[in-house]
Every structure is written in C-alpha cells, then in structure tokens.
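Minutes, project check-in
Item: structure for the 696-residue chain
Input as provided by the requester:
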Amino acid sequence: MEQVGDFSEQKLLLQAVFERSFEAIVIIDRALRFVEVNPSACELFGSTKEQLIGQSLADFFTSPLNLEGQDITRVKIRHSQDIIKTVEYSEVKNLFSEYNLLVFRDVTNLQRAAEAELHRQHQRVKLFSDVTLKIRQSLQLKEILHTAVTEVQRILQADRVLIYQVFANGTGMPISEAVLPDYDPILGVEFPEEVFPEEYREMYAGGRVQAIANVHDADTGLAECLVEFMDEWMVKAKLIVPILQNLKSPTDEHQSPDRLWGLLIAHQCATPRQWTNFELELMEQLADQIGIALSQGELLENLEDLVEERTTKLREVNRNLQQEIKDRLDAEAALRRSEEQLRLIANGLPVLIAYVDKHQRYRFNNEVYQTWLGLSPSKIHNCHLEKVHGEEEYQQIREYVGKALSGKTVTYETDIVLLDGCMHSLSVTYIPHFNERKKNVVRGFFALTSDISDRKAIERMKDEFISVVSHELRTPLTSIHSSLKILATGKLGNLSSKGQRMLKIADEQTERLVRLVNNVLDLQSIQSGKAKMNKTACNATDLMIEAAQTMQTMAQERGVKLFAESVNFLVWADRDYIVQTLTNLLSNAIKFSPPDSTVWLSAKRKRQRRTTVSKKSIPYITFEVKDQGQGIPTNQLESIFERFQQVDSSDSRKKGGTGLGLAICRQIIEEHDGKIWAESCVGKGSTFYFTLPAVI
C-alpha cells in the first residue's frame, strides 16, 4: 500500500511539474503528432490543447524538422497568428516505447537583443569611421580640430563643442569650437586659473573622463568658482574627455608616458542632460584619434590605419585563433630578421663576442673567433669551455666563469697567442644573463673580449717616460731647491722685501715639484712591482703615533688639534709604507680642516670575508682618519683615488697638493691585500678608511 501511495504522489508531482513548467513540453508519437502538451506549449504554438492533439508538429516549423541533429537545436516556428518565433528544443527519445518528449524554449527576445546589439555596434563603427574619415581628409591641424568639433556637435546634438588646449605653463584656452547661434562662442577666451587648477590637470592627464549631467548638482563636487564660470556661459551639463599625446617615437624601445595636450568638451546649454555610454565612448575614441594625429604629425598616414585596426578587431572577434597564428608567424619572422641583424653587427665588431649557457657550453660566437683564434663558430657551438680552450687555460678562467654564473659581472686581463703568432693582451668581461621571470636565476653569461695590446704598450711607454723624466728632473730640482735655500739664508747677500717674497714663492713651488717627482717615482715603483714590501707584525698604536708625531708640527702651524687613539692590535704590514699612508691621509685632513678643529686617528678590529674560494672569515684592522673639513661630494668619492684627481684643483694647489697622494695610498694598501675608501658629508667633514690583515 505504501508503494502505491508513493507512486501516486510521484505521479501527482510529475503532473504538477508538467503543468506549471515555463518550458514548453510536448509528447509526440512516431508520426510526429502531438499526443500531450502542457500549457506553456499551448502558449508557444498559439493553440489550445484540443487543437494541438493529433496535429503534426512539422506543420509549425518554417523549415523541415530534423530530430537527428544536436542535443539542442535552434529553429524558427510559426505561431497560429503567423508570428515567427525562434526557439531552442531538445529531445528525449524513447520516453515510452512509441513516444518521444521534446522541450522547447522561446529565445526570440534574446535573439532580437543580440541582433540589436550587433546593429548598434555596426552603427557605432560606421559612425566612427565616417567621422574619422572626415578628419583624415583634413590635412592641417586647424582643419582637423574644426572637423572634429563640428562632427561631434552634429552627432551629439550638443549646444557647444570645443577643443581646449593646455599649454606648457599650465594655462590654456579654446582653440576650436562649434556652437549653435543662440549661444555665445568661447573661442579664444582664456580660462581663469582657478577654474582649471593643477589637480584638474593631473586628473585629466591620468585619462579621467567627466560626464556631468547637471553642473548645479551638489554630488558633482565642482568648485563654486567653476559653477559660476559655467553659469556665465549658460552651461547646464558638460562632457569632458582628455586628449592625450603619446610622446613615444617609432624608434624608441621604451614606453613614454602620455602628455595631456588638451580637452574635448561638449556643453549642453538649454537643459541638463544625461550623457549615454555611447556618447562617452565616441568622445573618447575621437579624442584618441586627435591625440594620435598630434603625436604622429601626419594624420593622413595614421588615422586610416587606426580606423581600419579598430574595425578589423570588431569584425574578427570569431577569428582570434587565426590572427594569433599569423601574429606568431610574423613575430618569428621578425625575430629571425633581428637575429640576423645582430649576427651581422656582432661579426662586424673587432671583438670576441660569445654567449655561454649555465652548463658552460657555447651557444653563440661571432666570426672573429675564426679570425683571432682559428675556431669556427659552427664547430665550437654547443661545446664545453674546457673542450674548446683546453684543460690548462680552462683552469685559469674557471674562477671567473664561476663568478659570472653566480650572478657577478667579472672583468680580467690575460695574455694569449693569437692566430697571427703574436702575443696579445686581452681584456675579458663576463656579463651574467638573468632569467626574465626569476631575477636571481642565471641562465648563462655573455663573454666580451677586446684586444688591449696597443693600450698596454702605450701604458708601458707612458710609465717608462714618466720614470725617465722623473729621474732626470729629480737631480736638477734638488740642486735648485738647495740653491734657493742658501739664497734665503742671506749668506750670498740680502734681497729686497719684494725679492724675498719672490724667493719664497720659488722655494715653495720648487719644493712642490720635488714632492711631485718623488710621488710619481713612488707610484711608478709600486705599480711596476719594483718596490718590495717587507711585511712584519707591527703594533697599530706605534704606527699611528709615529705618523701623528710627524704631522704634529704641521697641525700646530694650522691651529688643528691632532688626536691618536691607543689600541692593542698587531697588523701584518710594511712599517714604512703604512706610516707613509697614514702621513698622507693626516696631511690631507690637516690641510683641508679649519682652525680650531680636530683630526682623529683611530683603529678598530673587524671580521671580513677573505675569498669566495676558502669561505673563511679573516680578521682585519680598519684604520680611520676623520676630519671636520669642507667635505667631498658623493660623486667624487671614487675618483679622488685616481692619479692627478682632486676635489678642487685650484684650492689644492694653494695648499700644496700634487694629486698623487691618495693614488699612492691606494696602491700601498692594495699591495697589503687591503682596501681603502672614503665617506663624507659636504660641509661636515670626511673620514678615510683602510684595512690591513690582523695578526692573530
């Protein structure tokens, strides 16, 4: 009994679904005759149930009925009142042994809406094409702008349309206008600054569009002065679209920001107006066209392409895949052309150019490898570095290769015999190539090798010349200096006061020349390796005290206090050269310090990483010379350690500088496996640092 009751309830439930369904449900027999229909089906076919039962379903279709098609089929049927409807139907076959069930859904309104939207898009494209075509036919800027405002005024039926140009100084004025006869023209009227302030310009420069239906509406947020200005010209509603000019040139690889050139403005003066999305889009598109025309300078050449591009995009919505394939083929062709151009350029340069991947295999070589080394690029392609250069040479460059693959740019020099049989000096630079997505992952490195043999020869000639000249100058300069000292004593006769001043100047300049020659010889001796560093364990305090005592007299003469800190450190160094370094640094600090200031000399113990190979932390002693002088600009903190480099050459000459003291200091410290640098704040003083290995 419960099963019978359940079946009855199910039958009632199914009957209710059948009767109340919004979808049209019909049951047909093998002859396609109606056997059963629900109320929605009666409404769809425009007949009563009694009229439909027994009638053929095919009589309602405008084309032959095919029930062997897809699961869901869209067809057209004829209503009893000769109304054509579009429906989608699906079929449930073999619902019973002799019957099929069909479910119909009326999509007439949906299809009409889609057709209407396509029609609107077509009208929009046609309208936009017509307007831009008229703009394209204008050859001068004045004609372009006049055509634009005239066509916008015609299409929008606005009371006034104008183009407002923004000048470089932030001011601006309307330069083109289309206005109905009932309203005063604004053309040529300069807008007050308060109605177009800086924040408005920034807003429009960002592409902001303003559509104001009623300028008196408090929600618009317009300033009171701007509303008053609108009232003066009887403006009730306005639509403002920025005209942005793209400053990017065709050859510029980097995207340049758009610049606000002006505004395209529509005014409604008679009544307030609610602007539509179509009107906003049309104004934006036209503003884009004007901006592009201004940027390119040749609207005739660019506008047609842009209109065609926009039209093509609308027409090819369903052909994206084909276009994507075409673009990919074009990109591959362009890439091949680009690679060929790069290869031609690389082969034409007088340097070795190569690319090595992370597995240390050559992936690219220019033809100079064949000219210099006799290595054909095709033969060494994909070969390992060790196989190409041999085990001995590979062991020499292995450390540099490792640094490059770890993400560091490496430059080193080497001597090698080239194909001409001569020894050449080469400068090699490895530049790491990072993954575009994972910036810390190295994909390989570029290897650039240039022949610096001529430069090396010139440097050797220069050093030899300096050495010879300096040696030849030292003896006569010493004699001249001694003679001037004897004259200054008065033993050879007294001079007038003017003569004494001239003698003093000659003595000072001769002493400066002697120092310069000695410094040049010292620097050349250290750089050439002729100067031997006799390194021993030295007490840091003894070195500082000796240097401070040497410079004490100079400090007193200039009214500068000299303070040396006492520490208990031992350093591995050549005592004389380190005292010379400290003396040079103290001399500079004293010379460039004002009277009544202090110069500090101190040392601290620090741990620094020694090498990337051993990975051991070696203790170092850092010496500091701090002054309260005029300071050094940040951009000169590196160059002052070069030869003949001074912060202020005129001031340094007055103070007796030669421009070689810091260069000598750096050379001495580097020979001690240390480093030297400076930190400074202009107007507050400078601090010079250098490090020496500590004795454990």
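Outcome recorded: DSSP finds 20 helices and 22 strands in the chain.
No further action items on this chain.
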